[in-house]
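Usage

Read records sequentially. Each one opens with the input sequence:
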Amino acid sequence: MWDEVQRVMEHRSKGGQRDRVHYHYLKGLMYCDRCTQNGRASRMIFTKAEGRRGDYYDYFACRVRLEGKGQCDLPYLPAAQVEWHVADHYVRLGLPHDFREAITEAVGATLDNEQANLREIHAGYRKQLDRLAVREEKLLDLAEDSALPREKINARLRQIQIERVAAEEGMQETGDKISVGATVLDRHLRLLDDPHPTYATAPDAVRRD
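and closes with the structure output:
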């Protein structure tokens, strides 16, 4: 089967037949190592080959070899095998300690600034609620003394209620963002320590990004 697939792919490439465009999350991201060692830059092309039984198989092949110039002898690589080796690379992928510390410090500083801004906004909403409570209390006192028409008092109370709802929603939103910030930092640090689980469980679109 392997020899047959090789023969079909060689025939299609040399015969000038254009393969259909197929999607793969590694497409366009890899280069042929043999060509690189010989001073050439040649992308690995994702393609499909039809076997004798009509089944299609996914492969990566060196562009230089597909062009039939005889400059590269890298065999056609089954896509599943390439995917496994790329995922396996993440097991051994380790960031230098100094780089990891620098990234951690930079992200931590950014989150600290963002958290400080959120806390300031959060405190502002709390002060606004306190002011609204004072205004409401004064209006209720005026209502008891009949110092203002009831219609005006009711209108002002409704406005206070609208402002209170907006302030409470703002407090809830900023409070949620403050708690999320710590979670983001923790996930970031875990990713730097061991990126393989994230890559292994990510969908194809995320792996490509």
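Summary fields computed downstream for this record:
- The beta strands are 44-50, 56-62, 77-78.
- The first helix runs from residue 2 to 14.
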